[in-house]
Write a structure and sequence with these properties.
The complex is a heterodimer. Chain A has helices spanning about 5-35, 45-50, 55-95, 100-115, 120-130, 140-170, 170-180, 185-215, 225-235, 240-270. Chain A is mostly helical. Chain B has one domain (about 25-55, about 75-245): Rossmann fold (3-Layer(aba) Sandwich), CATH 3.40.50. Chain B has helices at about 45-50, 75-80, 95-105, 115-125, 140-155, 170-185, 200-205, 225-230, 235-245, and strands at about 5-15, 15-30, 30-35, 60-65, 65, 80-85, 160-165, 190-195, 210-215, 215-220. In chain B, α3 packs across α4 (about 115-125). Classes of the chains: A mainly alpha, B alpha/beta.
Chain lengths: ~280, ~250
């Protein structure tokens, strides 16, 4: 047989070409509509000046980047704390020992409360409340307690993700491990957790993308991170462009993270699931 | 012969469903006993009770004369002496074949990695799986996976091995290789308990065959007696259906 395509492959290729063409035309139409119509709105010139000023952008962008380092720092120390706390909570909730009953009740109360309160409220309550107890420096830093509030909130979500992962491991895996004489804890450590964690990495990444954005909420109780810095620049020049700059900086991080998450999800599905239905 | 396992009036229910009503029997050291019976007759539950994966509601199970169903007893040291192989293999998919076999050796018996590795190499070679040692379970055929599962259970050097319908999830052409492994185990001194639907195999390999029905031992005896001259009407009926289905030569 020659190198020519099978009839099926040739058909698929034509179809694919056609769908690419349709997608391109429809996308171009939408973009053209926006480009053509938005500038015709009555106040476009004013909006353009106060949101998309090149001068203001160039001026504040370096300061924004500098302030963004603090966001990254908060993210960097909160994330491991969240993962560790969440794992402990998930394991405690999953324990079957009678002695751990009070711990189970406590973790249930914790996840219920922290998931039920808006992040911004817990940042206010913990970030202002705890330093208000009259703690000495550096223990009265709003940065510290704002981060703690983030950790407590996010760990309650992530704990549920871990718990779902743990419960998704079939009971027969536990049976196999226990039948070999492994203790409950050894079964969790060597058999259940490694499989569960692998399974929940994609949903976990989703929470990390959210965390990356919610870090900016810590600015509400004082620390000058990117959102706060943008606010200062906006006030100084009565121009909203710094917010657009801040948004772009966030997107530069969150979009690649989201794409990575999607890729991990697809890979996980391909690895475990059946082949795709047309 | 001395008794390896003694079951005294063992009973087990799941909710309203009384799976085991009253099971009493004795199994000698090194004996091969097959449990046959219709689906739901309690074969699997019985094996899981012996391995302490299920707790018995009533009655007792003695291993070498010691009651292993006594309340408050630590199950882990006993499970090391009683291995089980499952119908669905239950290998650990995130671990290599080597690690599947060595996990309990290093973590439960506290053996060194080298010792455990040597045991794994020897066992896997014995079952013709040397070339799979660094593969992961999903790369193996069902028959190969089940042989690994047997190796994993044997690694702890158990005195009793429970085989729970170990060929039921296999493609027909893979059944033979797993049964060959069981044939090889017979006579090695290990006590073998099989729950099985492979009537021909049960007849061939068993020292005694036990027919379970309605949660009790309906009939137990030499394979010849059970398969050729069953006395209990339930056994007769069951075997007739098996023969009609072409799973046993009459």
């Amino acid at each position: 047989m020659s190198a020519s395509l099978s009839r099926r492959a040739a058909y698929e290729r034509t179809r694919k070409r056609r769908s690419i063409a349709v997608a391109t035309v429809s996308s171009l139409t939408v973009v053209a509509a926006i480009v053509l119509f938005v500038p015709r709105m009555p106040r476009w010139d004013r909006v353009k000046e106060s949101f998309f000023s090149g001068e203001r952008f160039a001026d504040s962008f370096p300061r924004l980047l500098e302030a963004f380092v603090l966001d990254i720092k908060i993210f960097a120390w909160s994330m491991p704390a969240i993962v560790i706390l969440a794992l402990l909570v998930a394991i405690a909730r999953n324990s079957r020992s009678a002695a751990l009953f009070p711990v189970r009740v406590l973790t249930i109360a914790y996840t219920d409360i922290m998931r039920g309160v808006p992040v911004i409220l817990s940042i206010y309550l913990i970030g202002f409340g705890v330093p208000g107890l009259g703690l000495e420096r550096p223990w009265n830093s709003p940065l510290l307690w704002g981060s703690v509030a983030l950790v407590l909130t996010y760990a309650s979500y992530v704990a549920e993700v871990f718990r779902a992962g743990i419960e998704s491991i079939h009971e027969s895996q536990r049976a196999a491990a226990r039948s070999l004489g492994l203790s409950n804890w050894q079964t969790m450590r060597f058999v259940v957790l490694p499989q569960a964690i692998r399974r929940v990495v994609p949903p976990l990444m989703n929470d990390m993308v959210s965390l990356q954005k919610d870090v900016a909420l810590v600015s509400l109780i004082g620390p000058i991170e990117i959102l706060r810095q943008a606010g200062i620049d906006k006030a100084k020049f009565a121009n909203f462009t710094p917010f657009v700059g801040a948004a772009l900086i966030f997107l530069a991080i969150t979009i690649p993270l989201t794409r990575l998450t999607d890729w991990l999800l697809t890979r996980e599905r391909d690895r475990t699931g059946a082949s795709k239905v047309r | 012969m001395n008794a390896k396992l003694t079951l005294n009036s063992v009973a087990k229910s799941f909710g309203d469903n009384q799976v085991l009503r009253n099971i009493s029997l004795t199994i000698n050291t090194g004996e091969v006993v097959s449990f046959i019976g219709a689906s739901g007759s309690g074969k699997t539950t019985l094996l899981r009770c012996i391995n302490l994966l299920e707790t018995v509601d009533n009655g007792s199970i003695l291993l070498d004369g010691t009651d292993i169903t006594a309340v408050g007893l630590d199950a882990n040291p006993i499970r090391r002496r009683i291995g089980i192989v499952f119908q669905s293999f239950n290998l650990f998919p995130h671990l290599s074949i080597r690690r599947n076999v060595t996990l309990a050796l290093t973590e439960v018996l506290g053996k060194s990695a080298d010792d455990a590795n040597e045991t794994a190499i020897n066992l896997l070679a014995r079952f013709g799986l040397s070339d799979k040692i660094d593969s992961y379970p999903d790369r193996l055929s069902g028959g190969q996976q089940q042989r690994v599962a047997i190796a994993r259970a044997l690694a702890l050097n158990p005195e009793v091995l429970l085989l729970d319908e170990i060929t039921s999830a296999l493609d027909p052409e893979l059944v033979g290789e797993v049964l060959d492994v069981v044939r090889e185990l017979k006579g090695s001194g290990i006590t073998l308990l099989l729950a099985t639907h492979e009537m021909g195999f049960a007849r061939e390999i068993s020292d005694r065959v036990c027919f379970l029905a309605d949660g009790v031992v309906a009939e137990m005896g030499l394979p010849e007696q059970i398969f050729s001259h069953p006395t209990d009407p339930r056994t007769q009926q069951f075997l007739q259906r098996v023969i009609a289905a072409g799973r046993l030569r009459g």
